[in-house]
Model the fold of this input.
Amino acid sequence: MTASVQDTRTDRLIRFGFLAAMLVFFALPIVYLFSTSFKTPDDVLQGRLLPEAATLKNYPNAFAHVPVLRMIWNSVAVALLSGAITLVIAVPATYATIKLGAFRRTVPNITLASYAAPPIIALIPLFYLLQTAQLMDSIPGLALVHGLMNLPVAFWLLKSFISDIPAEIDEAAWIDGAGYWHTLFAVILPLIFPGILATALICIILSYNEFLFASALTFSEASRTITVGMSLFQGERLVNFGQMAAASFTGMVPIYLIAFLFQKHLVGGLTQGSIK
Amino acid sequence: MVSINIQNLEKHYGKVKALHGLNLEIDDGEFIVLVGPSGCGKSTLLRCVAGLNPISGGDILFDGTPVGHLPPQERDLSMVFQNYALYPHLTVAQNLAFGLKVRKTPAEEIEKRVKWAADILAITPYLDRRPRALSGGQRQRVAMGRAMVKHSNAFLFDEPLSNLDAQLRVQMRKEIRALQQRIGVTSIYVTHDQVEAMTMGDRIVVMKDGRIEQVGTPSELYTAPQTRFVAGFIGSPQMSFVTAQADGHRMRLSDGTFLTSATAAQGPVTLGIRPEHFLDNASEANRLTLDVTNQQVVGTSTSYFATLGDGEIEVIRQGSDTERPATLALGIRPEHIMVFDKDDHRIAA
Amino acid sequence: MATPPAASFGSDRGASQRKRAEWSMTLPLMVGLAIFAGYPLVYLVLLAFSRSDLGQQFQGFVGLENFDWALSGTHFSGSVGHAILFALIVSLVQLALGLYLAVILSKIVRGGRWLRTIVLLPLMTPPVMVGIAWKLILNPSGGWLNGVLLRTGLIDDPISFFGNHDLAFPAIMLADTWQWTPLIVILCFAILQGVPHDVEEAAALDGAYPKRIFWTVTLPMIAPALLSVYLLRVIMALKTFDLVYTLTFGGPGNATNIATFEIWKTALREFDVGLAAAQTLMFAITVSVVTLPIVLLHNHLEKRR
Done:
């Protein structure tokens, strides 16, 4: 009996050690990036966790070197617009599939298949499509691509939220005389609002973070997104790490704000959508 | 408020037939109860009337007008669901008003009707609350209120009381029935509970395997069930059944006992006797002495179980008898012995 | 009695209203997926059998030439191998780490909010920035890890993780694991929350110790769910592009050249769109072949329950 108690104690130590190590692992790159953004070029070469003589200069210098704020604004605009496109398309379709049984098998299957397909498949054809539609190198063009890209994700996230609403609620509304669209707007939307918020946030983040399409479909300053802009630092011969860190960190701020403000919704959305 | 006429109604899911050509006439203002074991098609029938399930054949007529092709939105019905299906994001008042708003009823009319329903149902104090903040009984009343305000063609009830505890259920039965009589609205009420059916319905429709077994008033079903199934389903405790060989009015059981029935038959039959129809000793014709195998005291009455022929019969007697007697001396009137043929149809006396 | 007219579905107003709603609600999704997945697939097939460059497509039908060239004359098959190896390994490592972390977290009652935030941040970070952050950590000059190793005297010269043939791939995997283990933690945590307590309690009453209960009771119960998570992660990992682009650009040599990056290079650096299309099709088929066994195993486990 005593042995088992001691076992538990070492178990607990191992567990605590592992947890602590993982938390350091998760935090370290972000902390180091943040601290590097305050380092002078000489300081950077020391490879120490904290700057020796912190400087704020990297931020204005980086902003002067690359239009960071403009690119963040482009990213935010694309993300918001694409999120709206995704939701406008996905919410009614998910409702019809789950509650009206429309194309009950087809829709889940094709969404799953198009999610599994590597996005590189769509890159070249979409390149020509945007060119033909005169949407190349524009915020609406990239937003459209991202909006369509996120449809499968939105469908699977919304699916679980909508199936949680008992069928009788819809039926009561129909018997009360409400049409199918009316039922969706007046009854279902308010009920799945947390789910819609979570889905919107996840789609917005996916769009903001996206790089492959953005790099191929935007190139001018007017539409280039922050992820594309940051990748350009990689090509430079002499990278100023301090400035790069400052620009990167600034580019991460909008996403981290969302993570702080809506962590409950995000975690809820991720788990609901994938587990059920 | 309409009369409802169900004609040759069929419903199948793929190859599976859920309803086999049902015919049923419901009078204006009548309270009809659909009862039967689970899977008998009673809920499917109700949902077909509501328009929630598309029908596969036949038609449904309201006051002679076919409505089978109409969507649920256009049938002008009210429905009370088992889980109440109140709109969780709306207050009680908004729940009641929803259907009226959809139909573009003027605001003052909505207010008047909501107030009227809330007064009758005694839910006025809760009008500003959300359904979540209400008890089961209160939610049930709100669901009733939502049905009432609409002045609809008919009320449809889908096992509305099965989520309530026993005491509340008995009370709500009375309230629903009183309310229905007050408004005079045609009602179809689905339940699997035969006691609920017996106490509430003007007429009862007993269903089995997608077919109507029998339609009748509660007393008709009790005294003159047409099939063994109806006889066994209606009445509590259940009717006891024993097989016998009939020769006119004389029925010979497998243990050699003879019983005399008011009904005449020939050949193999099944006899049905209700537990409450055993008499202490009165009948000249059928006098039995049975060994008691088991006994249950149910408050004011006591159930005894005994073997008769090849069946186990239940005998119910007034009073609570805590000591189990070894034997019971009983009599049965010939007219209380129902006789069913080999197809389980009751043979008329 | 005359047979009443059968309520036929087509002329039925209720059914047709409902059909109309169904169509109007789902049509945009269908069109969207047709644009994003259907049209590209058709376009790709056409491109794959033609000589096409970025500026001018469909210069002529070339049969299987593109496929032939992709397999024999390019680094494509190696890059597919890299992609599969990468996906299977990182997913497994992340599943193990994530599950263990979720088990630990499910025993912790307090501090959930802070832990959740720390776990959430890597997941939310744009992959390009993940690359930058890890570049800062692993860089030979000014990288934190080299700094630590040099200061503690474990090494004398800084290591170039991304320039080393043997270390570059593990370094990318490390960055990928940093980003995606949190997702596994969140999913596994939810899976563990869904395990009914009574079974574990029954096992405890039978005298089993927590560790044993986990291996013999909990794990078999959650195995199908874990496999779904693994499948999801493999599918996602097969799409990896950004990390390779930012960290190594496929190098050194072709050491970290994975299929998506190879296709990207062929199309947007060498402008041979026809060849890239053939590569894409072959990669898509490979993805289905790789994920199919996992799907089958999952269905098998699901059925056994």
About this structure: The radius of gyration of chain C is 26 Å. The interface with chain B takes residues 1, 3-7, 9, 11-15, 17-18 of chain C (CB under 8 Å). Residues 1-10 of chain C have pLDDT under 50 and may be disordered.
